[in-house]
Q: What sequence folds into this?
């Protein structure tokens, strides 16, 4: 009795958990404040989640394959510096292309360190993030790099559709493309297989190393785009920009049910995790509650999400 | 055999346990006396491990009670059971891999002087205990990580002895042991009982249980179907209690291979850097070739090398006459090889994923258009193949870890059969699989051979390889030493061929001095 419903609940619990929590929070905030459910506030929230949102999409890819990327904000900073430097000489299009190329190359470095050099991804990307930021400081002398061309600023301007900023559309596009790649392609399948059981994937003819290297290249490339959005805000870039953003992104992904052990996760849930964290921050703001409690709530939520993941994985024999 | 009298050391009354989905144990009444060995048997899912876990405090019963020396107990954690003298040695070992044997054995009761560990006293106690247990080769300061599975198990057993356990529960201890090691363990179990301890041996290996147990308890679907003296029981009678019917695994003569059947797998002078080989053999279409030998004789090593999982240092491998150069799993699969590996949890299945995801992993590209997956044909194909393999699952979307060992094994077969292999290598096809599923797996292997696939079967169960194979190759110390046709050899002859080396060594030792 109720077995079937129970199984469905179990099977879908990750999806349902994050979706229901978000809907409930939106409902509560709509009822308890007059200011939450206004177009202005919605546009605001959607713009604020862009950078972390892109990084959450990015980190979901290597996390599904069972590896972490802690170098995303450093990659973003270095790529943004490359973008502005190149743009100042060769135009904005070349700048954007150079930034993404730089991000992909930095991702390749991470991938090689984790696979062929066999360094645990946690340590490897922590180390490379120091290297990347160090390079950024060296090439800029620690100074802010300013853009001559102001067209990058367009990202922070409202688009004609629904009044949301162009940056929001960038996030949406990245979310959809990454989501489709992960959920619908053979490559995505390989990511899950490698994260689920590395040895079994190898025996099944999957190149474990290449799958992980390419996952880092994707997260590097996407981190570069996050860097571009950051740079567009002040029309400048500097070595210390975005420090620590990847931790929020990983926390959001975990809240969205991406497993720390690899093998499970979905891009849309990671993005929802980011929105959930932002809604909490926004709610504290609108309710005029002391912001110190905001961190307590967000931290508790992360603990809860990881604990839930463990329960879902626990075997009942 | 004497009948036990007096208060049982351990007794359970009305013990019951249910998990969300199903009842695992109902209303068990059992008593166990000191100084005896009890064999606990049953198919996978019969409730053996749950029972052992309750006795050792790892899980709680929903109903009923546990009595020790006639007194009711409530075990809230393994520590409570340990305090009452109940120790369990499980399949998943719980050792600190980077610490020494002595530390592992005496954790929690280290000798200390002013807060520092007194290494000398520790070593002395270790040596005494080791000699008592008869594990002559174990060294106090050896790091556990460097030890074989069998040695690690000895460390676990010593830890139980160090705690003065009166009740020692062993869950499938012989599964990881070679024949010689198993003999040693069974001897030790007898000695433990002779010292007045109670040993509860949970095992799939009926011969092992019958060799050592005074009493046998058989569980089926959470209830007791037999409890009584081991004397007079046979593997067949116990099997009947376990499955509720008599399962005939009477191996029949394998189907005749056509005289003109071509050679599908040819291996010539294959050598590995670790000294296995050179080994040459071939398997024809429709033929089942068995590889027997002791653990460590090089059987799995040959399989892994042919499949490209391990490096080779020389030799020639060909499938249907096409040479497999620089073997890797990818190339091997492309040439038509398939490997059902020996440890499905390690490198066979992704346990967190579904039957479908696991089954279609090798052929993932078949179910795609321009990189995109095509879900519908994939589901249809997996459903059809799983049905043929009679995989029992709620649906093909059920997570693999929820399935029984036998069904997991069938998922492995499904996965590789979907790749339509020319050559199928099967390593330990029935490990951790219950009796009913075993017969089904044998049928699957025979059917696949009948379709023209060349099959190489590796197994530690001698009857299994003897019964299945057209030809049986025996390996010893990295070499092929004997070849038997079906029905040509007796079990003893095969064991002698596999052990030959050991006996020759003994013979040399005996005559060497003169």
A:
């Amino acid at each position: 009795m109720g077995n079937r419903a129970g199984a469905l609940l179990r099977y879908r619990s990750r999806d349902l958990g994050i979706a229901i929590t978000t809907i409930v929070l939106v409902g509560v905030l709509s009822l308890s404040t007059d200011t939450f459910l206004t177009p202005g506030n919605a546009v605001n929230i959607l713009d604020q989640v862009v950078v972390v949102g892109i990084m959450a999409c990015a980190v979901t890819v290597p996390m599904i394959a069972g590896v972490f990327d802690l170098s995303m904000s450093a990659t973003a900073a270095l790529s943004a510096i490359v973008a502005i430097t190149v743009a100042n000489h060769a135009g904005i299009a070349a700048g954007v292309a150079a930034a993404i190329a730089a991000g992909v190359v930095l991702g390749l470095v991470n991938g090689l360190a984790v696979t062929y050099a066999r360094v645990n991804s946690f340590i490897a990307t922590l180390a490379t993030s120091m290297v990347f930021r160090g390079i950024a400081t060296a090439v800029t002398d620690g100074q802010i790099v300013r853009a001559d061309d102001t067209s990058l600023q367009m990202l922070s301007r409202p688009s004609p559709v629904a009044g949301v900023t162009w940056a929001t559309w960038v996030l949406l596009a990245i979310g959809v493309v990454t989501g489709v790649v992960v959920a619908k392609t053979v490559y995505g399948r390989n990511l899950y297989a490698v994260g689920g059981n590395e040895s079994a994937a190898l025996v099944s003819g999957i190149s474990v190393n290449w799958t992980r290297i390419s996952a880092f290249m994707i997260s590097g490339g996407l981190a570069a785009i996050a860097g571009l959005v950051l740079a567009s805000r002040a029309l400048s870039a500097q070595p210390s920009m975005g420090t620590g953003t990847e931790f929020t992104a990983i926390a959001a992904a975990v809240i969205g049910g991406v497993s720390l052990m690899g093998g499970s996760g979905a891009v849309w849930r990671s993005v929802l995790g980011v929105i959930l964290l932002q809604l909490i921050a926004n709610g504290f703001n609108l309710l005029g509650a002391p912001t110190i409690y905001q961190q307590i709530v967000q931290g508790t939520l992360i603990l809860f999400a990881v604990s839930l993941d463990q329960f879902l994985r626990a075997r009942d024999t | 055999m004497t009948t036990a009298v007096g208060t049982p050391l351990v007794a359970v009354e009305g013990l019951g346990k249910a998990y969300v989905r199903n009842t695992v144990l109902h209303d068990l009444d059992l008593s166990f006396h000191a100084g005896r060995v009890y064999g606990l048997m049953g198919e996978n899912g019969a409730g053996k491990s749950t029972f052992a876990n309750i006795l050792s405090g790892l899980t709680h019963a929903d109903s009923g009670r546990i009595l020790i020396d006639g007194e009711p107990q409530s075990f809230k954690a393994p520590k409570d059971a340990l305090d009452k003298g109940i120790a369990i040695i499980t399949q998943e070992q719980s050792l600190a891999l980077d610490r020494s044997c002595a530390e592992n054995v005496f954790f929690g009761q280290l000798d200390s002087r002013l807060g520092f560990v007194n290494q000398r006293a520790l070593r002395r106690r270790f040596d005494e205990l080791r000699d008592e247990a008869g594990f002559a080769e174990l060294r106090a300061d050896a790091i556990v990580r460097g030890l074989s599975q069998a040695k690690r198990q000895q460390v676990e057993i010593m830890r139980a002895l160090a705690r003065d356990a009166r009740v020692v529960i062993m869950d499938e201890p012989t599964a990881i042991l070679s024949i010689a090691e198993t003999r040693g363990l069974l001897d030790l179990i007898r000695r433990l009982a002779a010292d007045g301890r109670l040993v509860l041996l949970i095992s799939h290996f009926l011969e092992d249980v019958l060799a050592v147990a005074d009493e046998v308890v058989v569980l089926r679907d959470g209830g007791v179907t037999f409890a009584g003296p081991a004397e007079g029981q046979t593997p067949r009678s116990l099997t009947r209690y376990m499955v509720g019917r008599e399962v005939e695994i009477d191996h029949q003569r394998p189907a005749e291979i056509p005289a003109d059947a071509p050679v599908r797998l040819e291996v010539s002078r294959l050598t590995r850097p670790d000294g296995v080989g050179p080994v040459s053999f071939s398997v024809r279409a429709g033929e089942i070739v068995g590889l027997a030998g002791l653990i460590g004789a090089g059987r799995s090593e040959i399989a892994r090398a042919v499949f490209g999982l391990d490096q080779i240092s020389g030799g020639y491998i060909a499938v249907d006459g096409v040479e497999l150069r620089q073997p890797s799993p990818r190339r091997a699969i492309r040439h038509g090889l398939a490997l059902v590996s020996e440890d499905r949890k390690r490198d066979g299945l992704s346990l967190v994923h579904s039957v479908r995801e696991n089954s279609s992993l090798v052929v993932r590209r078949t179910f795609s258009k321009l990189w995109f997956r095509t879900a519908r044909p994939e589901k249809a194909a997996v459903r059809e193949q799983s049905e043929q393999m009679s995989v029992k699952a709620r649906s093909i979307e059920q997570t693999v870890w929820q399935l029984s060992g036998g069904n997991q094994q069938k998922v492995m077969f499904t996965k590789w059969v979907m790749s339509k292999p020319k050559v199928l290598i099967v390593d330990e096809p029935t490990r951790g699989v219950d009796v009913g599923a075993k017969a089904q797996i044998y049928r699957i292997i025979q059917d696949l051979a009948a379709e023209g696939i060349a099959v190489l079967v590796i197994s530690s169960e001698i009857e299994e390889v003897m019964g299945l194979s057209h030809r049986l190759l025996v390996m010893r110390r990295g070499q092929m030493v004997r070849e038997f046709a079906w029905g040509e050899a007796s079990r003893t002859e095969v064991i002698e061929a596999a052990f030959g080396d050991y006996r020759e060594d003994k013979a040399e030792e005996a005559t060497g001095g003169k």
Summary: Residues 501-514 of chain B have pLDDT under 50 and may be disordered.
